Amino acid sequence: MYIDICINVISQTDFGLFADDTKFLGEASASSQIQNDLDALTEKLEEWQLSSNIAKCSVVHLGRQNPMYSYKMKGIDLTKSTCEKDLGVILSLDLKPEKHIGLVVRKASNTLWLLTHSLRHLDIHSKISAYTSYVRPQLEYATVIWSPYLKKDIDRIERVQKRFVKGLEGFRNLPYDEALKKAHSP
To answer: How are beta strands 79-80 and 89-92 bridged, if at all?
Structure first.
């Protein structure tokens, strides 16, 4: 029902929908159109007695020449944000993946620490299977969007894998490339 309301009410602005999440997309020059569609959506939601959490709404202004207009819902200014998490990916104003990579590396490192301490009595193949199942997906999720291109970012991600491989029994003294090949061979 919510999607039908959005499709029928938002007429001047491009938008994206995912579950109960709506993204308005538009150029700064179309700020009055965006505001009109926000007003129309708010009005229609109230008519259908559906609530919108204005505290969770925010505006991200992209581009150096963006005049950063203020947008309102129910007369309340929407919060301006410098970065937003969208479907698990952090997007910043400069569109650089640095903040997202920091979060991903932290989460993967925490998971790796937990696995290392919880599964220390298991054989190497079980540890590799656990790493592949629980840590790598965190490092690889949505890489199409935030693909690291700076050496420092690639190294931060690679350090998680190096820590895992070097922590395996019998792998500590091997050169990293050799240890990596040995860890991924059957």
So the answer is: unpaired
Q: Which of 67, 51, 48 is nearest to 59 (CA)?
A: 67
Residue 136's DSSP bridge partners are none
pTM of the model: 0.79
The whole-angstrom separation of Cα 118 and Cα 37 is 52
Average pLDDT over residues 114-118: 95
Please say whether the dihedral angle defined by the alpha carbons of residues 96, 148, 56 and 108, taken in this order, is positive or negative: negative
Q: What is the pLDDT of residue 2?
A: 64
The CA distance from 124 to 99, in Å, is: 33
Query: In which residue are the tokens 């708010």 written?
Result: 42
Two tokens, residue 177: 């490339």
The residue among 5, 8, 3 whose CA lies nearest residue 18 is: 3
The CA distance from 80 to 58, in Å, is 6
Question: Residue 16 carries which DSSP code?
Answer: E
